[in-house]
Amino acid sequence: MANEAGGGTRRTRAERSDSVRNRERLLVAARALFATDGLHAPLDRIATTAGVGPGTLYRHFPTRLALWEAVLEEPLRAQLDLVERALANPDRWTGLAGYLLETCAHEAERGGYLNLMTTRFDGAPRLSELRRQIQRRIVELISRARTEGVIRPDFTTEDLVFLTLSNSRVAEVTRDVAPGAWRRNAELFLDSMRPERAHPLSQPPLQPSEVALTMTRPAPRKPLSEED
Amino acid sequence: MANEAGGGTRRTRAERSDSVRNRERLLVAARALFATDGLHAPLDRIATTAGVGPGTLYRHFPTRLALWEAVLEEPLRAQLDLVERALANPDRWTGLAGYLLETCAHEAERGGYLNLMTTRFDGAPRLSELRRQIQRRIVELISRARTEGVIRPDFTTEDLVFLTLSNSRVAEVTRDVAPGAWRRNAELFLDSMRPERAHPLSQPPLQPSEVALTMTRPAPRKPLSEED
DNA sequence: CTCTTAACGGAGGCATCACTCCGTTAAAGT
DNA sequence: ACTTTAACGGAGTGATGCCTCCGTTAAGAG
């Protein structure tokens, strides 16, 4: 009640214009460098690119995670949108297949954001919550497709995540040379999901506890490689 | 004629025992650290692990590439063996499927050696030559399987390499939690290769020039990730 | 226009890693 | 045992990246 915007005993000072501007610049720079150089792009370089000193970066985003939180929320929401639209599709197969391809496309574009779905964001509750929501929808997506028989009965949610994860490596390797090459690979994956082609799998699906661990592994140190 | 072992005007000095011993120690340490920490494990740490000074390491292996050359030859030969054995198998499908699974197993074990087949080794002619040999056999393996109709007709050599590449990511992510989980993924891949009821692929195979570029990308900077 | 103060930014400390130089050690030949 | 000399190893240099401290600047309020 006290100290609210404009109503307290002590007025909250308005945010300084340069502060707002710098924050925005930092986010732009971070988005760019995360995409090209990965989620561990040098912070000093992000600051330089934004045209501010390192001190300013750390004032706005005390940790790398804070910066991730600010930058990654949008792509995660986009991902959530993707699942929602897949769920809305009455044709289960088309919905699911479209989801896989679009997710792969999503990751192929933003090379640096690779594997958002399997990256741990401890200390970034908003991101963690988003990831949880997305995963819930994927479970739904798979279970519906399975009950309607458009995918093989032994196919699980984790299998799907692993397929997108798998494809991200191909996207990573081919992005400079043949930017669309991942699609062919992903379409092969689609055929591996179909019920009429299924052969028994020797390996049982992961235990729930294993899934939890695997899906929340720490963020990769250096997802992309450069010259040698 | 002159200066040969024992026959020249000036005798070639025999190799010092400590030199041989240290070289061996360095190789042991390098093998271990490459496997656990990736092909870019700190050289100083390799030296320390081997119980020698950094100077000694650089004397034996002036560049990181020289160390790779010494360490990676054996696994590449093993890989060559794998293809040979697959080719020797009269049952084309079993041979090919076995090759895929064993290759994936191979990469899953030696996490640090990931994607030997798509890593460039400029300046290491022996490794490059080995890789070329392996690739030639794979082409043979695929073409035989295709003409005998045990795989889909639109499946190419690069598709196979990309599948193993894909799976390596899964192996990487699951190795600590569920070391065998990659196999399920790889078996899904097998189903995507089968000829029956294959669905058309929208993307044409890579151009030979694109293949060459993709298959010889620089070695990854930090293949593995640790705590965060 | 003046004052207050938050925001700025960069110099610099610390850690890691690649790589070298050189005084010391000890292996091998006599 | 003595000599020669290759091999040793670690201190040291430079580069990179993380992060902080603090003197300076300028935004916003009055």
TrEMBL record, chains A, B:
Residues 20-79 form the HTH tetR-type domain. InterPro entries: Homeodomain-like_sf, HTH-type_TetR-like_transc_reg, HTH_TetR, Tet_transcr_reg_TetR-rel_C_sf, TetR_SbtR-like_C. GO terms for molecular function: DNA-binding transcription factor activity; transcription cis-regulatory region binding. Residues 42-61 bind DNA. Pfam families: TetR_C_43 (PF21597), TetR_N (PF00440). Keywords: DNA-binding, Transcription, Transcription regulation. Residues 197-228 are annotated as: Disordered. It comes from the Bacteria. This is DNA-binding transcriptional regulator, AcrR family. It comes from Asanoa hainanensis. The lineage of its organism: Bacteria, Bacillati, Actinomycetota, Actinomycetes, Micromonosporales.
